[in-house]
Design brief:
Distance between the termini: 69 Å
Number of helices: 16
Strand content: 15-25%
CATH class of the largest domain: Mainly Alpha
Structural class: alpha+beta
Oligomer: single chain
CATH architecture of the largest domain: Alpha Horseshoe
Largest sheet: 5 strands, antiparallel
Length: 410
């Protein structure tokens, strides 16, 4: 298995890794090679000549083909291009000894050389080493390299790079490599819900990329197709999305994405009528044992702009097998009504898997037979199936609910 030889670079040391997963030749064969004895082939790279045995070189599928040409069979001489002498020297060391000491800064170059020469064990080991050293500043470049090589042995590296980029999205978007992504690469990165970031963060990253890459309208449209605008806060859509010049000619697409799950949703562009906005996060500890006899759990009352609000959870009480989430406005009493747009969001450990729903409602006091006047709640009886909460929504038996409210007097 590869072992890291040094953790840092100083004046007289270079960070390196030891490769050791190859199949070594017999010791006698290695000794003959080092002494340039009985070597029956010469490989010329960048003007340097490397003596070797054809039988060993044939371990490379590429070299095996070269050695079978009529000219090479007569002369035993092969000249290689598109590869450095230092990389070929390391490949040759690996073919003979099954080992090689490689500077970390040369790993990618060696991977490309091993891929060109079709030395599959070396390709696989290098892919493994590179995959273990992924960071925000190298994963996108390695992803592009693995995709370009297209070999089965680098598929795990390609998958690892994509997974790392999704999980460390905030780190990778700050790199120059992110701004250099092609349109298909960016589509692959943000499609689905793999990215560990909010849709607002994804949108900001796409705009940053578009300003640098200057994609065609068709390319930008293809990218915007993968953004879930309906999961954004209404205030963000109004202030950031709808005012972004790059989005102006794609407004029909944005509207379609906004309305795809919520045909009743309206985006208010004017500030008139908006009295106050509020964001409140409620953490519900010991969720599995919380609640009254009917499975109801109430948040503390929170206030904004003179209004009082409260959240209610219903653990199967409204609809069996489902968690219901509702918003209550306790100060909507008598003839007083409170109009509001609100978004309820159930947090997941993977941000893009969080569940978010939007509604608008006019809260008021409601008369119920034998119950008098009660505060009306509004929300979803079937917000999510209870059995799905274990898939990242419950963390240490704590549930996190977020509400964003925009109160109106229109």
């Amino acid at each position: 298995m590869p072992k890291r030889a040094h953790d840092a670079v100083d004046d007289d040391q270079v960070a390196a890794v030891e490769l050791s997963d190859g199949e070594p030749q017999p010791e006698r064969q290695i000794a003959l090679w080092r002494a340039s004895t009985f070597c029956d082939a010469t490989v010329v790279v960048e003007g340097r000549s490397f003596a070797a045995h054809r039988l060993v070189l044939a371990s490379s599928d590429f070299m095996s083909t070269c050695l079978q040409s009529s000219m090479t069979e007569q002369t035993g001489r092969v000249e290689l291009h598109d590869i450095s002498a230092s990389s070929f020297e390391l490949v040759l060391e690996y073919l003979y000894t099954g080992k090689a000491r490689v500077a970390v800064r040369s790993l990618v170059e060696l991977l490309e050389a091993a891929a060109m020469l079709q030395v599959q064990p070396l390709v696989a080991e290098l892919a493994k080493v590179l995959g273990a050293g992924l960071a925000g500043d190298n994963c996108l470049d390695l992803w592009a390299t693995a995709a370009r090589l297209g070999l089965p042995a680098v598929k795990p590296l390609k998958a690892a790079c994509l997974k790392f980029a999704c999980e460390s999205f905030a780190d990778v978007v700050s790199t120059t490599s992110f701004l250099s992504l092609s349109c298909p690469q960016l589509e692959c990165l943000i499609r689905g819900r793999r990215v560990h970031a909010s849709e607002e963060t994804v949108f900001a990253a796409v705009i940053k990329w578009a300003r640098a890459a200057q994609p065609s309208p068709g390319e930008l449209s293809a990218i915007l197709q993968h953004i879930h605008f309906r999961d954004m806060r209404p205030s963000f859509v109004s202030s950031e999305v709808l005012t972004e010049p790059l989005v102006a000619e794609h407004m029909q697409l944005v509207a379609k994405r906004l309305l795809s799950d919520q045909p009743q949703r309206r985006i208010h562009l004017e500030a008139t009528g908006r009295v106050a906005s509020l964001a409140y996060t409620w953490k519900v500890p010991s969720f599995s044992v919380s609640g009254d006899s009917e499975g109801r759990v109430y948040s503390p009352i929170f206030r904004s702009g003179g209004d009082e609000w409260q959240l209610k959870l219903s653990k199967g009480g409204e609809v069996e097998g489902y968690l219901g989430i509702f918003l209550i406005c306790p100060n909507a009493v008598g003839d007083v009504t409170v109009k509001a747009d609100f978004t309820l969001k159930l947090h997941n450990q993977t941000p893009r898997k969080s569940v978010q729903k939007w509604a608008e409602h006019e809260f008021k006091h409601t008369a119920k037979p034998h119950m008098g006047w009660i505060n009306e709640d509004w929300g979803w009886q079937k917000f999510i199936e209870l059995e799905k909460l274990s898939a990242g929504f419950l963390v240490d038996d704590t549930l996190t609910v977020e509400v964003s409210i925009e109160r109106r007097n229109e």
